[in-house]
Amino acid sequence: MQLYIDTASIDEIREAASMGVLDGVTTNPSLVAKEGVDFHERLGEICQAVPGPVSAEVIATEHEAMLEEAMALTEIADNIVIKLPSTVDGLRACRALSDKGIRTNLTLCFQPLQAMLVAKAGAFLVSPFLGRLDDLGQDGMELIQQIRTIYDNYGYETKILAASIRHPLHLVQCAMLGADVATVPFKIIKQMMHHPLTDSGLEKFLADWAAMKKPSNQLV
Ligand code: G3P
User: Domains, the chain, ranges and CATH?
Assistant: First the structure.
């Protein structure tokens, strides 16, 4: 499964990239607003830090205006992916951009038929929002499973990008169901390599080693 980071913080992105396992970045208007920086300037920095796909969302809700914004965003770098809402206008814009060879990420996907139509319109990525469905008492993971089955039944090439990930168990379940990508907040990326038994086990190994009688010419 590919791993993207879901943030607009350049510090978090650089630190995650330094781990050597980061495949891409997703941003959204809420994440950029939190940073309080110039959107295009920050995207330029992110695209330099990470060579993989970097999703940048349009603000327009009407498809012609979405296309204008998308064209300006594609000027920033070759690895920009245009993020569009899963609406009828988003679908139209998706088709127009796909026809020009521009990659898209159809976001705010909450039901399998949205995922089916955006795949038909040539989306590069579809973003089902797991956590927000779970928040409503629905099963976000069931949506991943439904989309996986539909895409496999018909050979749709759109990649399933699991979004709105709230905890490490979401990631385990996504990987087991065959999501192609997961986009994850920095806090959860750090949790992925953490287990208390790893910490206590390592502490014990080092303590035992330190207590061992060593020959006088041994360095550690
Ligand atoms: O970037 C889209 C998505 O991951 C947002 O997650 O936590 O705001 O539902 P959340």
Answer: 2-194 (3.20.20.70)
- pLDDT value of residue 213: 83
> Which atom of ligand 1 is the closest one to the Cα of 31?
1
Record the tokens describing residue 95, joined without a space. 């088709």
Which of 4, 81, 125, 132 maximizes ligand 1 atoms within 8 Å of its Cβ, making it the mutation to test the pocket?
132
- Report the distance separating Cα 24 and Cα 193, nearest Å: 19
pLDDT of residue 29: 87
Among 144, 164, 187, the mutation site with the greatest number of ligand 1 atoms within 8 A of its Cβ is: 164
Report the C-alpha gap between 6 and 165 in whole angstroms.
9
Token pair listed for 35: 């940073």
Q: What is the rounded CA–CA span in Å between residue 204 and residue 63?
A: 60
The residues carrying an active-site annotation are 83
Q: How much is the mean pLDDT over the chain?
A: 96
Query: Which residue lies with its CA nearest to atom 5 of ligand 1?
Result: 164
| 195 Cα: distance to centroid of ligand 1 (angstroms) | 25
Q: How far apart are the first and last CA of the chain?
A: 39
Which of the pair, 189 or 32, is modelled with greater confidence?
189
d(CA 155, CA 206): 51
